[in-house]
């Protein structure tokens, strides 16, 4: 059937809709990776968003058992130029369209994705609706994603421990990607995953060696209530923050975040480590960034910077063993150039142990 995406600025794009035809609202963003649609659609950080893929052919390697980043699809909709309903890969268990259909995720194909992306780059990430009737589209009742509380929708409600490694990491789940957990397990950690609103006291009882604040969807400023706990954790344990976790640590220490006109979503964002001058190609998925001027007096210094737009990509604290990164060292999709940052975190934990031993 014919389907349309109507942007908040009034523009309409026509394509072929694969789905029930019900109106779907969300924030429209674009992703530039050539592969990785399965990871994107199951990454909880995309909750509330419809994703335009700039790569012109999506679906050609199907959907497999292993590449999901969570247990279900999280995006509101996929918008593509050409969709392949084949699965030309030996691991493929289902076609993309069949998978999306089974989970009621609409796919709009035959769209001039280049034109939409140009519009998003001019006007910014904005509200959009996928519909079969573009004449009456209105956004009056649809609250912008920035003002929605999306983390409670993707965080877990129970505490669960994985692995039995040497370092015990408590990962606070704001909508974590499975690959982060897998990386920590791969590097020999035991990981306890806790709900996003777990108190300091409950985490203390778990006796962590380190704390990891995960990625997650939405505006970090919607999580004001969590900031005192986050600060307390970072002042007590070696702490790593990834993406939303990085933004929350910055806010907790008094810095500010702001929204980029259009986010960084793709697998080839260049980032420089100012301490070593090493450049990483990184996997990214975010709308918000930490404001550099606001770092003054927080104890944080900008250690990682995006080479394309000079935005902050990570922080180091001058007093506490706290490492924060806006990009994704676990990759998936994307290059694993920066995965050794997990080892840096583990080293921070070991050093803290030594400090304690000599204290
Ligand atoms: N991947 C993430 O954790 C994203 C963080 C935040 N939701 C943003 O868009 O900036």
TrEMBL record:
Pathway connected to this protein: Pyrimidine metabolism; UMP biosynthesis via de novo pathway; (S)-dihydroorotate from bicarbonate: step 1/3; Amino-acid biosynthesis; L-arginine biosynthesis; carbamoyl phosphate from bicarbonate: step 1/1
A Gene Ontology BP annotation from the UniProt entry: 'de novo' pyrimidine nucleobase biosynthetic process
Residues that bind L-glutamine: 45, 216, 218, 244, 247, 285, 288
Catalysed transformations (reactions): hydrogencarbonate + L-glutamine + 2 ATP + H2O = carbamoyl phosphate + L-glutamate + 2 ADP + phosphate + 2 H(+); L-glutamine + H2O = L-glutamate + NH4(+)
GO molecular function: ATP binding; carbamoyl-phosphate synthase (glutamine-hydrolyzing) activity; glutaminase activity
CPSase as annotated region, ranges: 1-167
Enzyme class: ligase
ATP-binding listed as a keyword: yes
Residues forming the catalytic site: 243 (nucleophile), 328, 330
SUPFAM superfamilies membership: Carbamoyl phosphate synthetase, small subunit N-terminal domain (SSF52021), Class I glutamine amidotransferase-like (SSF52317)
HAMAP family given in the database record: CPSase_S_chain (MF_01209)
Family indicated by similarity: Belongs to the CarA family.
Assembly and interaction partners: Composed of two chains; the small (or glutamine) chain promotes the hydrolysis of glutamine to ammonia, which is used by the large (or ammonia) chain to synthesize carbamoyl phosphate. Tetramer of heterodimers (alpha,beta)4.
Full protein name: Carbamoyl phosphate synthase small chain
Species annotation: Halalkalibacter nanhaiisediminis
Gene designation per UniProt: carA
């Amino acid at each position: 059937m014919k389907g349309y995406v109507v942007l908040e600025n009034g523009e309409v794009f026509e394509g072929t809709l694969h789905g029930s035809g019900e109106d779907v609202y969300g924030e429209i963003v674009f992703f530039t990776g050539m592969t990785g649609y399965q990871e994107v659609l199951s990454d909880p950080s995309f909750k509330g968003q419809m994703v335009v893929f700039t790569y012109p052919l999506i679906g050609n390697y199907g959907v497999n058992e292993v590449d999901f980043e969570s247990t279900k699809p999280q995006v509101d909709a996929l918008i593509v130029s050409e969709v392949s309903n084949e699965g030309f890969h030996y691991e493929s268990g289902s076609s993309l369209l069949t998978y999306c259909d089974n989970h009621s995720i609409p796919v709009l194909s035959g769209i001039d994705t280049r034109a939409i992306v140009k519009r998003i780059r001019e006007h910014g990430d904005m509200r959009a609706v996928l519909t079969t009737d573009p004449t009456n589209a209105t956004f009056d009742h649809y609250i912008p994603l920035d003002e929605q509380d999306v983390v409670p929708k993707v965080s877990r409600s129970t505490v669960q421990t994985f692995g039995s490694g040497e370092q015990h990491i408590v990962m606070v789940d704001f909508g974590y990607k499975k690959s982060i957990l897998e990386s920590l397990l791969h590097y020999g950690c035991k990981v306890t995953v806790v709900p996003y609103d777990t108190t300091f006291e409950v985490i203390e009882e778990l006796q962590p060696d380190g704390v990891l604040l995960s990625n997650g969807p939405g505006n970090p400023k919607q999580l004001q209530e969590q900031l005192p706990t986050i600060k307390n954790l970072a002042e007590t344990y070696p702490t790593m923050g990834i993406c939303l976790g990085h933004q929350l640590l910055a806010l907790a220490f008094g810095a500010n975040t702001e929204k980029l006109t259009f986010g960084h979503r793709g697998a080839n964002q260049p980032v420089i480590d100012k301490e070593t001058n090493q450049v990483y190609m990184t996997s990214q998925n975010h709308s918000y960034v930490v404001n550099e001027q606001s770092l003054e007096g927080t104890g944080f210094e900008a250690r990682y910077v995006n080479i394309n737009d000079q935005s902050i990509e990570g922080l180091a604290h001058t007093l506490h063993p706290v490492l924060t990164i806006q990009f994704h060292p676990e990759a998936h999709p994307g290059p694993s150039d920066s995965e050794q940052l997990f080892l840096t975190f583990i080293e921070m934990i070991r050093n803290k142990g030594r400090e304690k031993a000599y204290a």
